[in-house]
């Protein structure tokens, strides 16, 4: 039996070295709201969300306070991805990152999606992206479009409208 098609990733929980530093990134630079700060209850954990969901992101130092990121070439999280509703909102996220002096690694047009990549203060990969209309996900033969065309993320600031679609 296949997994039900309505199943979605509910939240991601990250081990971080410093909760305040991680909060400065996820709350201040990315704009997530704090839904619960468990430090008030003796737990080194903070839950964050976009909107009124209980949490999309959990941060904790249960086993990682003061730790360093894993070395390159080891298994673990490649990145966590946050889906924005459209190009305009992704551009706003890029603007906010620039205002908070957060370095952006690169931006990539994947065909069906447009993505901006960076790392959080603990070295976790972060992808911010929006989906183009579903019709743009496939080529004329109905095959899924897979591409990786890099571009300057500041191009998103130039126009809130995607030149390839109506989003």
Describe the structure.
- The chain is globular, with a radius of gyration of 17 Å.
- The strands form two sheets. Strands 5-8-7-6-9 form a five-stranded mixed beta sheet. A four-stranded mixed beta sheet has the order 1-4-3-2, with helices on one face.
- The chain has two domains: 1-65, 2,3-Dihydroxybiphenyl 1,2-Dioxygenase, domain 1 (Roll); 79-159, 2,3-Dihydroxybiphenyl 1,2-Dioxygenase, domain 1 (Roll), CATH 3.10.180.
- It has 167 residues and is an alpha+beta fold.
- The chain starts with 11 loop residues before the first strand and ends in a 9-residue tail after the last helix.
- Helix content is 17%, strand content 26%.
- Strand 6 (106-109) and strand 7 (113-119) form a beta hairpin.
Could you write a compact summary of the structure shown?
This protein is of the alpha+beta class. The chain has three helices and nine strands, in the order E-H-E-E-E-E-H-E-E-E-E-H.
Itemize the secondary structure elements and their pairings:
Layout: E1 12-15, H1 19-29, E2 33-37, E3 45-49, E4 57-60, E5 80-84, H2 87-99, E6 106-109, E7 113-119, E8 125-131, E9 149-151, H3 155-158
Parallel strand pairs: 1-4, 5-8
Antiparallel strand pairs: 2-3, 3-4, 6-7, 6-9, 7-8
Going by CATH, the architecture of the largest domain would be Roll
Task: Indicate the overall shape.
Answer: globular
Output the structural class. Answer: alpha+beta
CATH-assigned homologous superfamily of the largest domain: 2,3-Dihydroxybiphenyl 1,2-Dioxygenase, domain 1
Under CATH, the topology of the largest domain can be stated as 2,3-Dihydroxybiphenyl 1,2-Dioxygenase, domain 1
How many extended strands?
9
Tally of alpha and pi helices: 3
């Amino acid at each position: 039996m296949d997994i039900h098609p309505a199943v979605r990733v509910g939240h991601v929980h990250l081990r971080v070295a410093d909760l305040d530093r991680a909060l400065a990134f996820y709350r201040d630079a990315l704009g997530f709201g704090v839904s619960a700060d468990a430090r008030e209850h003796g737990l080194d954990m903070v839950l964050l969300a976009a909107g009124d969901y209980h949490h999309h992101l959990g941060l904790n130092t249960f086993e990682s306070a003061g730790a360093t990121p894993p070395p390159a070439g080891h298994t673990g999280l490649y990145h966590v991805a946050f889906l924005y509703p459209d190009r305009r909102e992704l551009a706003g996220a890029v603007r906010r990152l620039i205002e908070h002096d957060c370095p952006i690694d690169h931006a990539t047009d994947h065909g069906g999606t447009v993505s901006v990549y960076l790392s959080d203060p603990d070295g976790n990969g972060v992808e911010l992206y929006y989906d183009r209309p579903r019709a743009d996900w496939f080529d004329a033969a109905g095959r899924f479009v897979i591409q990786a065309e890099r571009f300057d993320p500041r191009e998103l600031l130039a126009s809130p409208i995607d030149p390839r679609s109506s989003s």
